[in-house]
Every structure is written in C-alpha cells, then in structure tokens.
C-alpha cells in the first residue's frame, strides 16, 4: 500500500487528468531551484545527522504544532522549548506518539501532503501514521537518520537541489557559508541579505545593531551616508557568498521616497531611539526605496513580503517566543503603499522586485495589475499560505489573466523543514500542471505551449528571476 | 416528475460523483443538530397548525420577499405588514399567486433549492411552481397544514431533529420553553442567551432594559458588579432551560479588555445615556470579554457574528421595520479586533468561541489562521450567506488547509423558516460530501477517512462543539 | 489548422460540455447589444479604412502594450506616441514584428483569446502568430483593411451589432452622431452622457468647462440652479442622439445627498477653484444623487464604475499621458458609500442604476446583497477585469445566489478595440453557458430553464436594462 496517490492533485476528469499527467511527466524530475528558504546553513556545513524524528518533523515546524495546539494540546507536551529554556516533554518518542495519535487533525491540510510525501519518498514508509504505527515510524526514521545516506548533504543531492538560498542578517559573519565553500562539496548554498536588524527602528537593539554594522564594515554608521555605504559594502560581501537577492518582511507594504535631508533626520531619530511608531514605519518604507536603488547598482533581486501580524498572542510570545504559529495575515494595500518606490524606480527593466502576499484578495485586484504593467515587478508564489494546493490554484486563477505567466517567478518553498522541500516543489509542479491541463482541456492553450509553460514554471522562471 | 435531482450538488464528473453519493448515503439520514436558529418556541409549545402557505413560505422569509422586492414588487402586495400595523394585500392566496408568477427570479439561488425541497419532501408536490400551478400548490399546502402530521411537533419529529436551539433575550421569561418542558413532549428545544438588549448601549431603551434585568434577577444592576452578577445568574437560568450557548451579533468584531474601573465608568455612562458611538462600541467590545470569562465558569459556548450593516434602507426601516432583507455585509477585521479578548482568554482549551463571518475575504486570510492556532476559537459555518452551496464550498476551500476540519463546527441553519431546516441540512451535507469527494478523487484523502469526516461534519462536530 | 477550439471555455467534463454546447448553439448567433463602449463614432460616420495592423491591434490597446511593457519592452518601440507628439518606432511593420515575437507573453490571458478570435474569424488567418509568421500576418491584414468588406460599417454589420453605445462629454457637439444619423445608414450607434468634465472639480479646466457648458445650453451655469438646468437640457440633447444612459467613473463609490444650500456652496467653491480634495469628492458624490434624480425624470439609465487609481505611474503619465495601462484597481466600499443615494432614491423601481466594480471582493459581500434588495440597483458585468473568462465565472459564482440572474444586465464589452467586440461577446456567452451547464449538470437548474436564462444573459437583459 502506498501513502501517496500517483495522480494526486490532478483533475478528476479523465481528459484533463491525462493532459496533467503528460505535462507533469516532463517536469517531475527537473532539478529544484529553492531561491527563498530558511534551512540552516550549518546543516550543510557540518553535515551531521539530524537528531530524531520529533526534532525533524514536529518540534521545529509551527505548521505542525500549531494545529495540535489549536485542538488543546499543550506545547510543553510537544517538547517545544519555552523562552526560559525549560522544556516539558523531553522524550522525543513521547512527543512523536502524541503527534501520531492526533494525525487525523491534518486531514485536508498541506502538512499532511508534505508529511506523507516525506514518510514515503524519503523514508520508504508505506503504512499510514496513527497511534498504532507510531513506534514503527519512530524506530524506522530514527534508524535511517544514522545512516550516511540521510546526512544533510546526501539528502540535498538525493532531492536534486540545484541551488538553495538561506537567509541571514547583515550582522552574520556567514561562517557556515564560508565553511561550505571551503569544504569542496559541490552543493550550491547561497545566502540572502535580510537587513531587518539594521533597517527596522523597532527591532530589538536597533542602535546597537547599527553600531555593530559599522564595526563589521568599517563605515561610519552613525552618519546617514556612512550607514548607506555600510549597506552597499555588506551587500557586496553577501554577493561574494552567493547572494543574488535581498529579503524584506515588513508589517505593511508601505514605501517612501523621502528627500535625503528628511531621511537623514529620521535615521538619526531612530538611532537615538526617539522614533514614533509612524516614523519607524516611514523609515522602513524609505529603506525599501534605498534598497531598490542599491539593487539597480549591484543587481540583487528584492523580495518584499508584507502583511503579517507577527506573534499575535502576547501570552504565547512571552512563554515560547517568536515563530510559534501566531503570525496572522492582515489586510494589505499595495496600490498606494508601493507608489513612492514605483515612482522612483518602477519602470526600470533591469530592476527585479518580487512581491509576495498573505492577503489573497490583492491578487486579482492589485498585484496582477501592478506586475502586469511595471517592468520592475514580478509576483512571488503563494507561499505564505504554506504552499497549499488550493492557494496555489487560486493564485494562478487570479493572476494569470492580468499578469500572464511570465510576470511570475516559479515556486519558492520558504521552509525550515528540510525533508518537505521535494514534497513542496512536487505539489507546486502538480498544481501548475493541473491548472495548465484545464486551460488545454478548455481550449484556451495549445498543449505544446502548455509543455513549455510547465517547464518555465517548474524551473526556468525561478532560475531567471533570481539570477541563479 | 420530480422537482429534485437525486444527485443534486454532487460533482458532474462520474468518479467524483460516485464517491460523493457513497459518502452522502451514509450521512443523509443522520439526525439534525440545529444549535443556532430562530424558530419560534411558541410553535412547539402550542403545537397549533401553521396558518397558510403564504404565511409559511413568503411573508416571514426575507430571503424570499427581498428578491421579489428587488425586481420592483411592492412589499405591501406581498402581505408584509408595515410598522403601523397596516397590511396591503390581506388575501394569502393573492400573495401566493404573485410569488408563484415570479418564481423564475429564484433560478440559481439557494432559496429555490430549499423551496423545491420543502415542496417535494414535506408536501409531496411534483409539478414545478409557476403561475399555472399556483392554485394547485396553494390548495394542496393549505390542505396539508390542517392535518395532524403537519403540526409543528409532528414535523419536528418527521425532520428527525435531535436538538434545536432558539434565541432569547435575557429579559425573556422563557415561558414557551417552560411549557414545552412541562408538556411531556420529548422534543429537545433549548434556548440561547442573546444579551443585546442589556449589553448594547445603543439598543432601544437600554437603561430601562438594565433596570428590568435587575428586577428579574434581584441584582443591583445600577452598579457594575451587580450588573455582571445579573448576567451570571441569568445565564444559569438559561442553562436550566437547556441553553448551552450565548449569541452575540455586533456591528464589528471589536473586543476590549478594559481595567475594571474603566469598564465601570463606561457602564455608568451608558446607563446615563451619555455614551458616544465610540464608547458604546468599546462597551459592547468589553462585554464580549466579560461573557468569555463567564463562559469559562459556566461552560456556555460563545457565538460571535459581526459585520452586518443592519437595516440599511432608512425608508424601509421606517415603513416596515427590522429584518426586511436590508442587512448588508461589510468588510470585517478580526485580527486586530479580537486581540484583546484573545490575549485575555484565547489560549484556554476549555473555552469555545465560535466565529461567524459575512465577509468571505476573512476566511483564508484571518479566520482560518486564527482558528488554526487558538484553542478557544472554532469557525462557524458559512451561514450568513444564506446557506448557499457556492458559499459553503468556498468556505471549505478557503479554511480547510489552514484550520483543518476539526476547528470547524458542522452546520447551523440559522433560520426562521421551519420547513427549510431539513433542506438546508441536506444542502450542507451534500456540499460537504462533494468537497470530500473531490479530495478523494484528487488523491488527497483516503476514502475511509472521508467517510469519517463526512459523519463528523454532518453530526458529531455540531453536537460536540455546542455541547448538546 | 484552426486557432480556436470549437469547444473553448466549456467545461472539460463530457456531460457538462454537451449541455454547454447545446445552450451555446442557441445563443451564439444572437445580435450583439453593446450598451457601454468606447469605439469612435467617427469610424461609423466617415467609414474610412482602418490604417494598418499595428494601429488596429497594438498601439491603441493598453491591454496589449502594457503586457509587453511589463516585460521590459519600450513603449517607444511599440509606436505608442508620447505626450510631446514624438513617436519612437514609426514603421508599423516593425511594431507588428516586435508584438509577434513576444506573442507567447499572452498565454493564458483574455487578450490572447480576443486576438486569436479576430485573426481567425475576422481575417481568416489559420496559422498561429509568431516571429515566423509576423510578416504573413501583417501583409494579409493590411490587404484586407483596404477591401470594402473591412470598412467600419461593413464590419459592424458582419459583427451583427444591433446597437452600440459610444461615450461623450456634455461639451461634445455629437457631430459624428449627427453625421451617422443623416447618412441614411441603418446602423444603430447611440451616445452616452458622461459628464466628468463638468461634475468633477478636479477635472482639468473645470471652471472653463462649466462656462462652456453654459454657452452650449444657454443656461446660467454660474448659478447652482442654472447649472442643474444645463444638465437637464444637455441630457435631453443626448437623448435626441439616442442616449439611453449616463456613465460615471469616480475614484470611489461615494455618494452624498446634501441640502440644496450646502450643495450650492460647494458648487460655487468648486467654480472658484477653492475646493479641498475632500470637498471635491463630496461634490462628485452629491452629483451622483442629482443625476439619479434627473434619471427619474428623463429615464436615462445610470452607470457607476468606481475604484480605479488612474494613471498610477507619475513618469508614464508625464511621458505618455492617460490610459496607458496604469489604472490600478483599489479596494472599494459600496455599503456606506452608496447609502446617501440609496436613501434618496434606492427604492424607486423606475430608476435603474448599474453598478460596476474592479474589486471582486465586493461581489458576494456587498454588491449582490445590495442589488438583491434595492429595486433601483442592477449589477453590471465583470468587465473591468478586461472580460476575463475566470473573472466572468467568479462573477456568476459570487453574485447569482444572492442577486439571482435578473438583477444583472447581460454583457458589456467596454472596449476601444473594434475587432475584439464579437470575440468578447462570444467569450461572455460561452462562460455564461458553461456556468449554466454546471448548474444543470449538478441538478440545480432544469435544462429548459437554462436555455431561457442563456438567452436572457446573451441578449434580452442588456436590451431591457439599457432600454435599447
């Protein structure tokens, strides 16, 4: 028995399914381009075994434990560590059993698809996970993890990853990337410039970070021009470690294009810790335009993904800290918000700004029309809806008619969960083939054109958009 | 000839349809749990015949007469009574004929599905309703209504209703429920605590209501602590009449968690009639948090359904009063609005707050992510879109991936139209089976799991979520 | 080989496709009613040949050139003229080749459907457009354009257009319409009253326009009452040239119903050029209510289409002027915005106000509920999403259940691209038949009723709603 249906995510209707199958058969084995992710470069640098099944699948994956938590299961009992360092359940097998007992909660969710895919394709498991099979699963996976073919680099190669990007702060010394580079291993692991710590006045220890930024770069980051110069230099350093992109996650899509004097004053206020919330927001918005200008010079692709209310629960933030499933999407405006940046640089064909959203209502109304006319804009995939098939399909349905396929950038997985990477790309390829199959079956696209587009969406567009 | 297609609402594609049929065959005859509705308890208490076909299907159902009105048909001619007590058309047969002549207006609407279902399944009619068959319909239904098997309790039993909830004000003496309880009839009819009259400072005669509230409960409702105590006691009284839930319909989802002193001051201002609109809103928002705290003690499930602009037309409100089809949905924010309440009690697994919406854009963006992580939150069904099949399907498509099935609560009918209750539950069961059939046909869920979920959605989840 | 699939846009599933085919076969040849468009009346008046293929398909159609521009192709190279009168590429064949080379960018877009339809059905072309076939296309189309059967009137007749509306300013002398009327040609070309130039205080040269308006009508347009009288008279003049409708495109759906004194003061302020942005908005909003009152007298149908951020790029507006693909939809509220107008005249069954939207999120939430109860309101088609099949289908899915079919008004093409008119109506008819086929296949509508509705949507409703 198999956990996975061979034709999963294809349309049920026979003719469309056959077209989808045919399209998919030509793209399923293409290498993976993963240009926006959050795996840990240390894994590839050290190449040590992953610790245990719970640590691999449950404890670090907020898509998994938030669903369990929503049904009344305590995070302590799932082994999620508190901010104060204490952990409730410390036996990974007990955590695994609790997870397995509640596996029915994931019915109909993308997590279920990724997990089953990992279980079957990565670990060769064939019986469904349940309370009854929990120990069998645990033992089998634990066993595997100690074998050389389950070490991070071996998995990287088995997953057919052509390139993967990680995400680092400008204050990071990129030591793990250095180590990977010097190891002689051929895997392509690049960094991404994510400057929140030094562009967000509300970031913890902003002033201290800017000081450290100056020390790292040898620039006078207490002055506006020195601060900008530090960015320029650090971006070069990141490019030397493979970076082809920067990444910007702000609460809103607000941009500003302030006169230099005004920008300088805001910066000095931010350093002094005197910014109001509105001024901090304006400064972040202005820095997006500065980053865009630097991109015109150094060629880094910009990624903007606004719209999360981060760490929504005060209590959970206090007990367990960030990234515990409490990032809740909010309504996001793009049309007004991006105008200052677009008026500054939006018609530059050499610039590439990739927009993401957590607010699907913006797809047809704002994002597709914007990307369908501004040369600098492209649409990132529907990833913050955790790579959901329904979300991916709605993305194509709501953007293609106005933005076409070629103002989109293929698929990003955006994940920390290493084993789910092939599963997520597989889901994206299947959904895109299903969408294309419908266009073909409905007489809206010739089948040979669909084959070309399928290849573009699975591989070429990501490679090209991210300059990888 | 039949009015209803045996396979209605199932997917057209053969394999999916077969799966849907099979799933449905196992849930179609399950008892009805109707935990949120607006039928009149007096019907079950007195058990008298319903008056006539127009009074049963047209005059009280704003989904029916608003459509006719939108096409230029006068409410007077439909026998809808004015606020001043006058009625235009007083001959129910004339009203019925006008309705029948315009029955084509309901093509493609849920009302049409419910009406045809009632005509065929409740009254055994088999020819389509039209001008030509209007009198046949009228005579046949009028005839039936005088037979014992069409009395409210007989229909209740024929409909296989296991439990139904009605909705009452804290100022209601629950006399009809008392009468039902003492009648020896076994039908389970419970009340619901709907405190608008005494928690909304803008409610007509708010101060007078609070005084009456004090008299009913023996509490000093002129003081903040006495007022809260009155709620506590009245909730106990409602629980004694079967209540398992409270119900809260505010213009927005705003909640507050004010310091006691500040809440008290707002309350006193409200009593004195000195609240600004903003203060009234803050008070209503704070009372949601107070109600949630009481729920933690007494176990009542909370229902919050915000977002209607009530009685949108000034002229129609003046002439015909409330509930005449002029409640228009508005954009509704949940993420900011619910935060105070959620920070206070949102991680309590014993609390159960069921959220409804009229703004579908909130499903994928806000409601599913919130319900998918906060243990206290569950998602109510898509009912304010009047139990529409398309709306129900979109609800599953937009919430399942993030909230799963088990953070939803099955189906509520929310209706005043007694004969439509089986039709609405049948529609919901069919749509859920159609959704599940697609998941199975697309290889995303095993068929035996789908059977279990279908049962959960049709019966178990409502029973469990509402503690019935 | 054909460019078009006979069954395009029908559901892939066989039974539904057969129903859709059958429905479509009865409506495909119905005459075209085009009550809201932007073709140039001069074409029909002069009946001269269209200049060349690039001028016919590329240079004037912002749906075409904005997609090319979004992929880095310069508007100068596409022959789009700058505001200063200069043009980059002046050889239409070079423009055509650039377009043909990039034709793959239109995969999956409605433009592709219209273009292929025009190529095949209007010009008899059968090979796909590409770099290789660019010259063949160019020569063939250029050849055709000089033949009498490709003159504007001949095409009008070949397209089976029963009536077409153009759009003019109150300051227009309607000379082309006059010329058409006197030509003895039987084609029905009517005008539409679009008063932006004299109702929008922010319109270029507003005060001068109002003065000219006075001169044209012989009314004292410096006074509020004279200004209103000028509208009344000019509407009569437009009615004499066939107008059955007025057209109003404001940034928002805001309406006002101000006391006459206050309206007068605003008007005088506007004339003096002293309006704030808020006051200008209020004045526009008030004028919608005035226009509605005039409609009650003279029977003109009102069209309101709010919600575009016009000419979003400062740079492109400065270089190339208006209508260059930079109108970006924004979030639009209707419920609060329309209330003043609806309280004034919304329950008048003789009034007909057709609402359009660029914000699809308003369909299910606001527009369908409003049109489903107010007799004065009808829903315009989904045209600002450029007649997209997906958008049209979502329109039916999100409005039918609440507003029914009979509160919608059939299809409008809203285009300047003459050759695309039959293609657009064909797309609309196919999508409506596909939607109806699904309702029939899912047992929600009888097939004979679907035939009647298909005819209504393709022809009758537009004719009736626009009083043509």
From TrEMBL, chains A, B, C:
Catalytic activity: D-glucuronate = D-fructuronate; aldehydo-D-galacturonate = keto-D-tagaturonate
Gene name of the record: uxaC_2
EC number annotated for this UniProt entry: 5.3.1.12
Record Pfam families: UxaC (PF02614)
Statement: the UniProt record of this protein carries the keyword Cell cycle: no
SUPFAM superfamilies hit by this protein: Metallo-dependent hydrolases (SSF51556)
Gene Ontology BP terms: D-galacturonate catabolic process; D-glucuronate catabolic process
Family assignment from sequence similarity: Belongs to the metallo-dependent hydrolases superfamily. Uronate isomerase family.
Single GO molecular function: glucuronate isomerase activity
UniProt keywords, alphabetically: Isomerase
Name this protein carries in UniProt: Uronate isomerase
Pathway annotation from the record: Carbohydrate metabolism; pentose and glucuronate interconversion
Source lineage: Bacteria, Pseudomonadati, Pseudomonadota, Alphaproteobacteria, Hyphomicrobiales
PANTHER family: URONATE ISOMERASE
Keyword DNA repair: no
């Amino acid at each position: 028995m198999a956990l996975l249906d061979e034709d999963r995510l294809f349309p049920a209707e026979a003719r469309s399914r056959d077209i989808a199958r045919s399209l998919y058969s030509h793209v399923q084995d293409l290498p993976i381009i993963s240009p926006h992710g959050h795996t840990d470069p240390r894994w590839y640098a050290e190449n040590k075994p992953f610790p245990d099944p719970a640590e691999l699948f449950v404890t670090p994956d907020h898509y998994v434990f938030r669903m369990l938590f929503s049904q009344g299961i305590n995070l302590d009992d799932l082994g999620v560590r508190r901010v104060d360092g204490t952990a409730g359940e410390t036996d990974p097998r007990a955590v695994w059993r609790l997870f397995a007992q509640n596996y029915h909660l994931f019915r109909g969710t993308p997590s279920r698809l990724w997990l089953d895919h990992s279980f079957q394709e990565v670990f060769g498991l064939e019986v469904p996970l349940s309370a009854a099979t929990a120990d069998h699963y645990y033992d089998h996976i634990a066993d595997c993890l100690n074998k050389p073919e389950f070490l991070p680099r071996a998995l990287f190669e088995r997953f057919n990853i052509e390139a993967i990007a990680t995400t680092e702060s400008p204050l990071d010394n990129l030591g793990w990337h250095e180590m990977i580079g010097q190891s002689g291993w051929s895997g392509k692991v690049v960094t991404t410039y994510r400057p929140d710590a030094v562009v967000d006045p509300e970031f913890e220890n902003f002033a201290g970070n800017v000081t450290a930024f100056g020390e790292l770069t040898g620039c006078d980051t207490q002055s506006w021009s020195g601060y900008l110069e530090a960015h320029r230099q650090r971006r070069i350093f990141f490019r030397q470690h493979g970076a082809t992109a920067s990444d910007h996650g702000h609460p809103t899509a607000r941009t500003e294009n302030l006169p230099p004097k005004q920008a300088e004053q805001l910066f000095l206020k931010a350093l002094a810790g005197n910014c109001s919330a509105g001024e901090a927001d304006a400064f972040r918005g202005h820095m997006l335009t500065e980053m865009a200008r630097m991109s015109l010079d150094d060629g880094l692709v910009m990624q903007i993904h606004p719209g999360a209310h981060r760490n929504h629960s005060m209590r959970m933030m206090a007990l367990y800290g960030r990234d515990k499933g409490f990032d809740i999407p909010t309504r996001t405006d793009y049309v007004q918000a991006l105008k200052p940046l677009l008026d500054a640089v939006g018609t530059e064909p050499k610039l590439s700004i990739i927009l993401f959203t957590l607010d699907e209502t913006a797809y047809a109304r704002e994002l597709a029309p914007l990307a369908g006319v501004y040369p600098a804009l492209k649409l990132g995939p529907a990833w913050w809806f955790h790579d959901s098939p329904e979300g991916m399909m709605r993305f194509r349905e709501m953007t293609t008619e106005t933005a076409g396929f070629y103002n989109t950038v293929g698929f990003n997985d955006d994940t920390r969960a290493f084993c789910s990477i092939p599963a997520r790309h597989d889901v994206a390829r299947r959904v895109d083939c299903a969408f294309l199959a419908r266009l073909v079956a409905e007489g809206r696209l010739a089948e040979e054109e669909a084959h070309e587009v399928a290849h573009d969406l699975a591989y070429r567009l990501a490679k090209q958009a991210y300059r990888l």
